[in-house]
Amino acid sequence: MHMSLAIQCTWTPLQMPRLRPPSFGPFLLHSPHTNFFPSFGGIRSRITTYPSFMAAMSTVSTQKEPVLNEDEPTQKTLQPSQVAQRLEKFKTTIFTQMSMLAIKHGAINLGQGFPNFDGPEFVKEAAIEAIKAGKNQYARGYGVPDLNSAISERFKKDTGLVVDPEKEVTVTSGCTEAIAATMLGLINPGDEVIVFAPFYDSYEATLSMAGAKIKCITLRPPNFSVPLDELKSTISKNTRAVLINTPHNPTGKMFTREELNTIASLCIENDVLVFTDEVYDKLAFEMDHISMASLPGMYERTVTLNSLGKTFSLTGWKIGWAIAPPHLTWGVRQAHSFLTFATCTPMQHAAAAALRAPESYYEELKRDYSAKKAILVEGLKAVGFKVYPSSGTYFVVVDHTPFGQENDVAFCEYLITEVGVVAIPTSVFYLNPEDGKNLVRFTFCKDEGTLRSAVERMKEKLLRK
Known about the structure:
The protein is an alpha/beta fold. The protein has a domain at 121-359: Type I PLP-dependent aspartate aminotransferase-like (Major domain) (Aspartate Aminotransferase, domain 2, 3-Layer(aba) Sandwich), CATH 3.40.640.10. The protein is built from 14 helices and 13 strands. The strands form three sheets. It has a seven-stranded mixed β-sheet with strand order 2-8-7-6-5-3-4, sandwiched between helices. Strands 9-10-13-12 form a four-stranded antiparallel β-sheet, with helices on one face. It is globular.
């Protein structure tokens, strides 16, 4: 016996609302859908302590635009913006304001940490050939085999370590994703992680997403040396990981062998992991880069993070990777699988060609950046800044206080509007913005003409108080 059921449905036509573009104050709330202006050097940080900054923030709308239905009287239904508490402190950014001011005043941009020149022709041609050859579908989740092998080969040349490209190399969408996958894949809520300030802002954001307990050790000018006694008193059996960045953004500091050996011995003694961001390893000028994983007893507890963008001036390709022993790679890959799953296929094939570049490429890269650095550093000193030493990266940090502004944010706004040059306020790199209020960061990853023009503007218009 069959029973039939008659179900009657009444459909109401869906009315599509008319959407109006949002209006913006001097700042945008950070969202993946509101990147109308580039962030500076990948930084999307927040400053919330200075009164002038907070006064400006009061003009920002935190409400959604109303949806209008033609069949109803015009009215506004205001909904507050929503964000998870773990990300709430990161939602506003000073870099939008800096971008808008730079465009308005025609400022020379020495703030953004990406080159204003293109990458090598042989790498771009390799990408074109890969696209033409039909290598355009999903890549294997943890990387195109040829790129995994090229990363392994490069790592052996740089560190002497032999790693399994299939089990110990994970290709990611830029180093920022490698950082996120490492934090989310290996850190549990409540785990204690030590970071060194100033730091790249995605460290704090991704640790917050992982629910970590962050302990911060501040590196201070002039040399930004690691306070080893403070580190010894901070690290303990409760510490899950130490996060380092060498060469270091924003200061240009390179961790010395003594510092790295001390960190290594403390991590071994307390059974602590190390996450090491080495994206600027090929931009080491005054000392040799030392990879933490190469120190005795450290490979088994280290995740090494790197990328293609800085070395090959191809930051928009977003090709990064994490190298770790299999037991740590497991966690990284688990998170990576549910973040991006796979990275751009043809660019991976081109990245493999890039990493097999002859040593002469890296030597020429260092010579070129050394010349750019000299132009900027000598120029900044001539202008009257106190310039702190930079041994690596393409950044220089200076003390702006000779020019009479109350803090780094005020100085950077003045530099754009009155002088026509962009720098980055370093307070955005600290847990406590007060620690960075006297410092600003310039970049020299620009062509020499741009650097010279910026220096001339500062010499002409920047007046010491």
